[in-house]
Amino acid sequence: MALLDSMSAKEFVRRRNAYSYPAVGLKVNTESCSWIEFDSTSKMDMYHALLLVSEEELKAVWGYLSTVFWGHFSGQDGRIRAARACAKVRMAVGSLHSLGVGNDEAAALIRMATKFVQADRYSRASQVLSELPQLGTAFASKVCAFLAPSRCGVVDRNIASKYPEFGFGVDEKGFVKRTAANFRLYDSYCAELQETAAALNSRGPDFRWSDRDGTLRTWRAVDVERAIF
Length: 229
Description:
By secondary structure, this protein is mainly alpha-helical. 57% of the residues lie in helices and 4% in strands.
């Protein structure tokens, strides 16, 4: 599938500029479930990446919990659902405790996934991350996208339903299934996002997208995904 064959470069820029999902992140080690609102998506991405790759186990785990929070912060209708996002984080923490999974073990999974991403093995990274509570196929891809926004993007029910060409299988509710086939498809999906980002960047400065703080940015895989979201 060639995304630029189905949508013009100018339309990619327009849609990326219009991407409106909240740019938020969970504050580290807060009992009250408080969060940070960023003035750009790039700053949000950097915040999560620095947490996830931190050598401090607690920070790495908090990067995962913040991804869970971010992914549930807004619904399909655009309404903010902070209480639901906090509840999902508490569920993830509760599941870790009930399973006897400590920060060291959770952080080890995140570090293993990071190594797979660095080796361009995105499907394996996604599989490893899906062992953490609240990370199905879609949410595992959200963590991958924060780990390596230049290489990975999110694949969720919205992408799967809008672009059946990618081949992701969904259940009766439209959610991306946790299957070996879907994990394998994540490799080709990320490759398509990367190729499209490179093609858009090759068109020069006139085709950069504008972040929320007014900064013009070059394209990454995650930016292509956000444009087609």
